[in-house]
């Protein structure tokens, strides 16, 4: 399977939109607050694993959010079709008529 970087970027832009990633980064910047909560419930030996789980859960929630909006999913499929059509046109030999 040949992965076009533009198709991968379309998926990333759809499932992890920049307007959602920004607030996620802000939440993770509150590390002191979250770290205090972690110290109460998660042993020090598992802190990295705990952070990994929180990060993966936040990505999964954002990705799920991206799949439930049918209009956005249709827009994603249209964008992928545009990219595939552009690739097909670029790959097709140009026809020249004498």
Automatic annotation (TrEMBL):
Q: Which organism is it from?
A: Halolamina salifodinae
Keyword annotations for this protein, in alphabetical order, are: Membrane, Transmembrane, Transmembrane helix
| Name recorded for this polypeptide | Uncharacterized protein
Span-the-membrane segments of this chain are 20-38, 45-66
Which top-level group of life is the source organism from?
Archaea
